[in-house]
Amino acid sequence: MSERVIPLIDQRLINTVARIPTTPVAPTGLLGDALGRPLRDLRISVTDRCNFRCSYCMPKEIFDKDYAYLPHSSLLSFEEITRVARQFVAHGVQKIRLTGGEPLLRKNLEILIEQLAALRTTEGQPLDITLTTNGSLLKRKAAALKAAGLQRVTVSLDGLDDTIFRAMNDVDFPVADVLEGIEAAQAAGLGPIKVNMVVKRGTNDHEILPMAAHFRHTKVVLRFIEYMDVGATNGWRMDEVLPSAEVVQRIHRELPLVQLGAAAPGETAERWGYADGSGEIGVISSVTQAFCSDCNRARLSTEGQLYLCLFASQGHDLRPIIRGGATDEQLAGAIAGIWQGRSDRYSELRASLPPDASTGTRRVEMSYIGG
Ligand code: SF4
User: Fold this and answer.
1) CATH class for the domain made up of 13-193+296-369
2) Any idea what DSSP says for residue 294?
3) Hey, where are the domains in the chain?
4) How many CB atoms lie within 10 A of CB 99?
5) Which one, of 332, 248, 336, lies nearest residue 289 by Cα?
6) What is the whole-number distance in angstroms between the Cα of residue 161 and the centre of ligand 1?
7) What pLDDT, in 10s, does the model give residues 186-232?
8) Is the CB of 228 inside a 6 Å radius of any atom of ligand 1?
9) Rounded Cα gap, residues 258 and 157, in angstroms
10) Does ligand 1 come within 6 angstroms of the Cβ of 307?
11) What's this model's pTM, rounded to 2 decimal places?
12) Which terminus of the chain has a lower count of CB atoms within 10 Å, N or C?
């Protein structure tokens, strides 16, 4: 296990308060940022809590029992989240991903999903509503989530070996329960299900082939994610990154692969299919093959902070506008102003940044705004 950098300070950032532009831009569904990227994908964190302590995201040493989690009163209510989402949809968002922490820890999440499922894109289509979960509560909740209007789920699973899995979630949670959750989600029709495995060289990379073999023939799409320097607490080191190209080679040697095209603009995964048609995998290569050029994702924290990049060091506080009596037009105008000024492309710049930029700079925690 690598030495971790553990700063003893509050992980949340000091954000700027969002401003209502004097002449708010009316939503057209075609909002572009400073690099011409449209706004299509909104990730909404509904809690900053999680029942796992994955070392690359929420190390136990920091997120311990004394950690100051957000009081419930500071969380956006479901009605507030839906109101904000409605403005993003008017600006062009077509996909909403619910995240956390662990989103299924938020009570009555089905109510929020029902509200979001009632929204329509600027073309009058239903939104693509999905959720990223660690799968620990999925077996119990899958059917109700589907009935509420959730279409798909992505499950984080870093290994099949129970000892490895328990060590990586660091709360001794059994892998069998997550696998049962995936089966329950499939039975409930929450597919195509995606499984995300964060690959850390020297920790779980020997699980790549067992995971690939396990999910072949199941219609589950397995994606391998390069270990990222998210936040400021996971002690990230480049030599623990296993480049996606090497992941593909390892699998191809045993299970021949053919490259597939992107399924949608702005998709983060590079897709590969098994040559014998027995399934599909993906690789998400934020470190070695940055995909910022068509990044169309915004992130809303559970207390109303807007982030424009997973590696952001600054957010925009929408809450004073949400709770300050502003109209929907003014809220939409504030969101437009923020997005139009966006030029984030951290992963593209990472290689050119000074070495300590990856470990010294305080960036928002992934556990706070979702992956
Ligand atoms: S680093 Fe930021 S801008 Fe680049 S793809 Fe990731 S979230 Fe988008």
Assistant:
1) alpha beta
2) G
3) 13-193+296-369
4) 26
5) 248
6) 31
7) 999 998 999 999 999 999 999 999 999 999 999 999 999 999 999 88
8) no
9) 24
10) no
11) 0.93
12) N
